[in-house]
Specification:
By secondary structure, the protein is of the alpha+beta class. It has 4 helices and 12 strands. The chain is 15% helix and 41% strand. The strands form 3 sheets. The chain has a 7-stranded antiparallel β-sheet with strand order 3-2-6-9-10-5-4.
Length: 170
């Protein structure tokens, strides 16, 4: 016996947003050399491949950061710590000079701005940009990296959050 399935349509944008708010995501700030430099908060950062090492993040092509990111050869990805919510908010705010609002940075290799004291930092070479709906997926190869201590900053249900140590013993 065959059961016919009704054709399904993609979920609407509001439902899609409501569903994905339930996914906890790490919070990163991506910085790009430019005149002026740009930076933005991203919760779409992920590892892609081990061989070769590749990472990705997504950026709206309507973003004020996109024209610079669309031309960039190098970017830095900063994974923020639980105590860096203010940095995440600053780099998520549109219409401001984000680097003037956050003085804790310096220029690094290739003129890429490097934020002070993230949980982890990767300096990357952009290898590909893939159009995806109203965004672009940026693939990049890490060239160098460093990490510190501390718990990561997460984004969940429209709010910043941190990991809490388990009270259960393993």
């Amino acid at each position: 016996m065959t059961i016919a399935a009704e054709p399904l349509a993609p979920v609407d944008p509001d439902t899609f947003r409501a569903l994905l708010r339930r996914q906890a995501a790490s919070v990163a700030v991506v910085t790009v050399a430019g005149d002026p430099p740009v930076g933005f908060t991203a919760t779409s950062f992920t590892s892609v491949s081990l061989r070769p090492p590749l990472v990705s993040f997504c950026l709206a092509r309507s973003s004020s950061s996109w024209p610079t990111a669309a031309r960039a050869t190098y970017v830095a990805v900063h994974l923020l710590g639980e105590d860096q919510q203010d940095i995440a908010r600053t780099f998520a705010t549109s219409g401001i000079d984000r680097f003037a609002a956050h003085p804790g940075w310096r220029y690094g290799p290739y003129g890429v701005p490097l934020l002070d004291e993230p949980v982890a930092r990767l300096l990357c070479r952009v290898t590909q940009r893939v159009p995806a709906g109203d965004h672009a997926i940026v693939l990049a190869e890490p060239l160098s990296g460093s990490h510190g201590d501390g718990a990561p900053l997460l984004y969940h249900m429209g709010r910043y959050a941190a990991l809490r140590p388990s009270t259960k013993e393993s």
